[in-house]
Amino acid sequence: MIKGFAGRVLELDLGARTFAFKPLDEAIARLYLGGKGYGTRLLYDLTQPGIDPLGPENPLIFATGPLNGSLAPQSNRFAVVCKSPLTGGIGSSACGGSFAFGLKKAGIDVVVVQGRSELPVRVEIDGDADAVRFLDASELWGLGTEATQKALGKGMHHAVIGPAGENKVLYAGIVSDARIAGRCGVGAVMGSKGLKALSAQGTRKLEMEDEAGFKKYTQWVRQVFKGHPVLGEKLRRFGTLGIVNTTNGRNMLPTRNFQAGHHPDAMGLSGEYLEDHGLVGVRSSCLHCPVACGREVEVPGAGRVKGPEYETAGMMGTNLGITDLALVNRWNWMADDLGLDTISLGVTLGFAMELQERGMLATGLAFGNPEGVAEMIDAIAHRRGLGDELAEGTRRMSRKFGGKEFAMHVKGLELSAYDPRGSFAQGVEYATTNRGGCHVQGASMYFESTGPLTINPQNLKLKAEIPVVQQNLACAVNSMVLCVFTTYGLVPRHVHALKPGGWMHRLARVLFENSGPAYRLIMGAKLFQATWLDTWLSRVTGMRFTPGHLQEIGARIFNLERMYNLREGLTGADDTLPDRILNEPLFKHMTSGHPLAELLPRYYEIRGWDAHGVPLPRTLKRLKVRV
């Protein structure tokens, strides 16, 4: 078995209360690594087209990668893969916390949960004894994620759902510690199986090919992180809320359901405000991560809890016309405890507010008014009253009540907090990403609007190329499994120091805008340092990896996801953006919205797809994608 892997897959049948340990498929691991890639391959092979996402035939797959269980910074994450009840296509989400570490200590790479339990159940995995226990979870059913994990104790590492997952809210997530696999409704799938919690423990050690070399190299990487302008300075000082003032200043912070990109009082939600005004603002860190981008805040009645990330500040803040950080702190804590994705939740609440504003549905919610929001969040998680409608997400609500032109989703997954009219490559990424409108499947906006080079975000240069490269990289990173912020460190410190308008900065932009479909000239000009991602993999596994290999693996995973979606009935027609984004200008110089129609054919061409967005046979053959 390749080093870095435990070599075992655990299969659980909740209906029959049986389990089996199977060997990890080394051929799949070589082609797809672990995490999202391995999980997607299993999902494709284990299921028939057209299954009910909330039926017992939809497997729920928890997958780690070859770097999980090591001391590599930001390697504490696991991936969850299933058919999404929110989109009907590929569903994947990633989560921090300690569960990935627990699985690898138990000597397990992947857990495949199948079937459905008629009564609430929880599962304990003892890797040292090769034992699996199916235990009654009736007393835990109805508890929030915080109380559930407290009741389970600290002896094991847990992945749990809250009331939102139990009630199959279509954007419910799975929580480990204070982190959540929020997107695509993976928590609803877990709830549909009657599974309240999955816990793991063990004392097994991760085997590496070159452990001494890995440790020495990792020490160097940690120092790079600490001295990096984004990872070691901005994110460490302000957390992800440090992005608020950047996007607000560039007119791309969603405001009032994406009716605007700027809010005059957004400073009140920023990391700078948090630093100045407390609320507590203490740094918190995921396992083995030197960045410490998390923040703890004080919520009356709840104590010190995990604070909101940038996405929550955008979607539960300015998107609702709210700039009171104390309110957003409370709503974020409620969502985490109930097990709700704050991105989809915020967009759905914003959509409900606009329906009310237009007289299309009496929701009792209004932009800029916090009254009724907390009550609605609780009603959504318990599918009570009108909350039952909002629990279905924006796309289904627009089909029932109208408002398709301002329903802010792609493929059924609500958009995250970067308005693509201020970041054209990000718009292409939203439209084409297989799981729907999400930024962490590529983060193209980093090269246009929030990162060091900030190439013109509103011309057509490289706006199809950047998403391809970034989506491939993200697929590889989510299969290792690492935090997406790891990729931010690939832009070295000296590039951040280039003065806008200076000759070095102009040269950097010329090289970038003429570099073709990737980083070829940029890497040659040392504007990007050689990635440590491939070096880590090489020293752990003993296989030889390069940045090119990671691009190939990522493209393989992305194309397999695409083939899964096509099999489930999604087509190129679903590679689009909301009508508001396509047709309503956000900047004075714009006469329309995002120019997706001009960019999509070029994107398909680079991908090796036909004009309808279907991968060509030669593309699948080149990437070794079996369908």
What would you say this structure looks like, in words?
With about 625 residues, the chain is α+β, with helices and mostly antiparallel strands. Helix content is about 40%, strand content about 15%. It contains 26 helices and 17 strands. It has three domains: about 10-200, Aldehyde Ferredoxin Oxidoreductase,  A, domain 1; about 230-415, Orthogonal Bundle (Aldehyde Ferredoxin Oxidoreductase Protein, subunit A, domain 2), CATH 1.10.569.10; about 420-625, Aldehyde Ferredoxin Oxidoreductase Protein, subunit A, domain 3 (Orthogonal Bundle), CATH 1.10.599. The strands form five sheets. Strands 2-1-6-3-4-5 form a six-stranded mixed β-sheet. Strands 8-7-12-9 form a four-stranded mixed β-sheet, with helices on both faces. The protein has a three-stranded antiparallel β-sheet with strand order 13-14-15. The two termini are about 25 Å apart. Mean pLDDT is about 90; it is low at about 510-530.
Summary of the model, kept short:
With 627 residues, this protein is of the alpha+beta class.
According to CATH, the fold-level topology of the largest domain is Aldehyde Ferredoxin Oxidoreductase Protein, subunit A, domain 3
Strand content: 5-15%
Report the CATH C-level class of the largest domain. Mainly Alpha
The CA-CA distance between the termini, in Å, is 25 Å
Radius of gyration, in angstroms, nearest whole number? 23 Å
Helix and strand topology:
Layout (H helix, E strand, L loop, with lengths): L7 E6 L4 E6 L2 H7 L2 H12 L13 E4 L14 E6 L6 E6 L3 H7 L4 E5 L6 E6 L4 E6 L8 H8 L4 E4 L2 H4 L7 E3 L2 E3 L4 H7 L2 E7 L9 H17 L1 H10 L5 H6 L21 H7 L2 E5 L9 E6 L3 E4 L3 H6 L9 H14 L3 H16 L15 H9 L5 H4 L3 H8 L7 E2 L2 E2 L9 H9 L32 H16 L12 H4 L6 H11 L6 H5 L7 H10 L5 H21 L11 H5 L12 H12 L9 H7 L4
Parallel strand pairs: 1-6, 7-12
Antiparallel strand pairs: 1-2, 3-4, 3-6, 4-5, 7-8, 9-12, 10-11, 13-14, 14-15, 16-17
Helix pairs in contact: 2-18, 2-23, 7-8, 7-22, 12-14, 17-18, 17-25, 18-23
